[in-house]
Amino acid sequence: MVENAPATASSTAAETLARPDHDVVIIGAGVCGIYQLYRLLQMDLNVTVLEAGEDVGGTWYWNRYPGARFDSESWSYGYSFSQEVLDEWSWSEHFAAQPETLSYLQFVVDKFDLKPHMQFGCTVDRVVWNEGDRAWSIHLADGRTLTTRFLLTAIGLLSAPMMPRIEGVEDFNGQAFHTYHWPKEPIDLTDKRVGIIGTGATGVQVIGAIADKVGSLTVFQRRPNWCAPLHNSKISEEEMAEIRSRYDEIFARCAETPGGFVHGPVDERFFETERAERLALWEELYDSPGFGIWLGNYREVLMDETANAEFNEFMADKIRQRVKDPSVAEKLIPKDHGFGVQRVPMETNYYEAYNRDNVELVDIGETPIERITAEGLRTTDREFEFDILIYATGFDAITGAFDRIDFVGVDDLKLREKWDNDPISYLGMGVSGFPNLITLAGPTSGSVSTNFPRGIELAVDWGTALIRHAIDNDITRIEVTPEAEERWMEHVRDMYGMLLLRNARSWFTGYNANFTRERRPRHMIYAGGNPRYRKKLAEEASAGYPGFRFE
Ligand code: NAP
């Protein structure tokens, strides 16, 4: 094909355009980018993956903090697309730790020889839509520019860490890390005085994992979360063989539950049961591994204030039973939100950590942090000295990863500006004004509220089919229509309306304490559940993509 060849009667539309360097560029080599690359290579396309890290893994490459592990059952988290991978890979624990998950992803990448199609240490600064060429220009921090017909984002939903907006963060003389940037080299915690800020899912994992390894641990908590026991355990060879024999059943089960987990809500209705029956179910869930307590509960617990309040009391009593000092227990019981409306941190020895003499809980709701100092930090009440400070302060979820890249679409429209109030999209997969961009795991996508690989396999398969449709039909420009976007966002808002999480201050509504300016609550996820999302995607494809304009 000749670049800029003039159109002839027999030319295809693609042949009349300047040929970009690549048919497809994928940004990100995590769980999503790996699978997307695999699929596109099967189509024999010219694809490259640009990854900021020095290796594959995404979330599992970066989050090396002590205690980092799945809250999904390992065997429900692995990819389902390859029988060979399912046959060959054995999980050692029901909820595998970060090093094992990273090895798993490396195994998949090596197995399908994907690395030659990936470029590491590549930070994408800016992407610009070029209408004349119907292609994206991708500008990298190293000065290079690539061009591509289709651009696919696999940039993670929790990949833009937020440092605390507290004065003096630069002044601390000891070691300090955001959990996302935990160093690759081992950190010796023995006898160290450690302070940690943040008690979300990450902080809760860290605290449970290090309390018995450090000299002292001071936890700075503003708003407690409702945490539930993970009940992790090893998987023997025999058990792995048994799990392997049930993979079809496991994935079928994940496909029918709202969260894409093996846990789905019970059929019984909260208000039609006796209290004794409810208590019996809750005791059973509390003693069972994984997210059952959150996702295998009565539906009403997540939808109805009365049901939620009754379950809160059950959970509060569990905290009181596990934490010896009643005043500490009370501080650990959330008062500002009900169970499950924020992401439930799964814990191992978390509450017991507060029974140790070397662990102190500081309620910074009562005595706020004034500043970080050279030696540690100062609250309105006291000075603290530390050797290590850990920031488990969360993320600018989903849109944060997009905001770091300057996306410039049709007529110089900036994605950052389009999403300033609410991240508007269609099916979480595309955005009007940004042609040939597929936002895998974008805001309002079902995959961001689902056991991630289950959701992302769906999104990748759908996006791949859309690209195939374009190529097979000589379509060089695909763009979401504003009408489709509007309809979708209305539906997204309706789905939020059904769940109590609509009011929560959590990343589900785009909350993080550290934004420099106040942000309105946002619609970040698809709250309608995995089966409904799959149906929406299938309907769009089978109707010939009416929400898109093709040229
Ligand atoms: P997070 O849930 O947003 O929690 C951040 C914590 O830091 C909150 O307790 C927050 O308190 C506190 N914080 C933030 N800024 C602060 C400040 N300036 N001063 C004092 N406290 C501050 O973040 P995360 O724990 O990293 O979890 C994020 C998500 O990652 C989870 O919801 C989950 O989806 C995912 N994750 C998954 C796993 C897993 O699969 N096993 C593990 C960890 C995380 P306030 O709420 O009071 O602001």
- Count of strand segments: 20
Major sheet characteristics: 8 strands, mixed
**Gross geometry:** globular
User: Rg to the nearest angstrom?
Assistant: 24 Å
Mean pLDDT: 96
Give the proportion of residues in helices.
25-40%
Distinct small molecules bound, one entry per kind:
NADP nicotinamide-adenine-dinucleotide phosphate
Q: How far is the N terminus from the C terminus?
A: 20 Å
User: What is the count of DSSP helices, taking H or I runs of 4+ residues?
Assistant: 19
Q: Runs with pLDDT <50, length 5+?
A: 1-9
**Main structural class:** alpha/beta
Proportion of residues in β-strands: 15-25%
What does this structure look like?
With 551 residues, this protein is an alpha/beta fold. Helix content is 32%, strand content 15%. Strand 8, helix 6 (201-210) and strand 9 form a beta-alpha-beta unit. The two termini are 20 Å apart. Residues 69-71, 158, 164-166, 197-203, 205, 222-223, 343, 364, 392-395, 507, 512-514 line the site of NADP nicotinamide-adenine-dinucleotide phosphate.
Summarize this, please?
The chain has 19 helices and 20 strands. The protein has helices at residues 31-42, 59-62, 74-77, 83-88, 98-111, 201-210, 237-245, 247-256, 275-286, 292-295, 300-303, 305-322, 326-332, 350-353, 399-403, 415-418, 452-472, 482-498, 530-542; strands spanning 22-27, 47-50, 118-119, 124-130, 135-140, 145-153, 175-178, 193-197, 216-221, 228-229, 346-347, 359-363, 369-372, 376-379, 383-385, 388-391, 406-408, 437-438, 478-480, 548-550. The longest helix has 21 residues, at 452-472.
